[in-house]
Design brief:
Layout (H helix, E strand, L loop, with lengths): L1 H4 L5 H10 L19 H8 L4 H7 L4 H6 L4 H6 L1 H13 L3 H13 L5 H16 L11 H10 L9 H21 L1 H14 L1
Length: 196
């Protein structure tokens, strides 16, 4: 009934929201969730609250850099805007927790203080690894229990097994879909047009 009361101009927004409420595989492409403007890729990034600086710098993204993201998943993860674009894509699939966990583990490995190491380890476990965690990642029981055991004496490597599983999952599952996504193809297209 509420949908009937919405003005016609909100139909596009309803379509976008409807598409977002399903897995990306159920949408043939991302045009339904991308705004109908020439700079689709930048507008798409704006939807996910990138800073003005990141948006300005992303305009300088070269075709070569964006093309290199297809070389390997690790190349994508090593590039600031590659991570930003991949995160935006994962949000459409409702699986950004995988990347967030992987990034949290990378940041965790830089911890030098023993006191901070323990608290950070427990925070990451409670947020991503524990059963029913708010942003629970998809890992098997054995990996989850091995990680739980590692927390008894936290070290910089206590999440390595879980992080490896999540990396592998993203590399084999989400990454190929990202490379075929309308969003990635729009980024490539936009960077190529700037060269012309």
């Amino acid at each position: 009934m509420a949908a009937l009361l919405m003005p016609r101009r909100n139909k596009g927004m309803r379509t976008r929201l409807g598409c977002l409420s399903h897995k990306s595989d159920s949408c043939s492409d991302f045009t339904a969730i991308l705004p109908d403007k020439p700079n689709r890729a930048l507008n798409y990034l704006r939807m996910y609250k990138f800073t003005v600086t990141e948006l300005q710098e992303s305009r300088r993204l070269s075709t070569e850099e964006a093309t290199r993201w297809a070389d390997s998943f690790d190349v994508l993860l090593s590039h600031k805007y590659g991570v930003a674009a991949f995160r935006a894509f994962l949000k459409t699939e409702f699986s950004e927790e995988n990347l967030e966990f992987w990034l949290a583990c990378e940041e965790f490995k830089k911890t030098r203080s023993t006191a901070k190491l323990v608290s950070k380890a427990h925070r990451i476990f409670e947020e991503f690894v524990d059963v029913q965690a708010p942003r629970e990642v998809n890992i098997d029981f054995q990996t989850r229990e091995a990680t739980r055991k590692n927390l008894q004496e936290p070290s910089l490597t206590c999440f390595d097994q879980a992080q490896g599983k999540v990396h592998s999952l993203m590399e084999k599952d989400s990454y190929p879909r990202f490379l075929r996504s309308k969003m990635y193809l729009d980024l490539l297209s936009q960077s190529q047009r700037r060269l012309s």
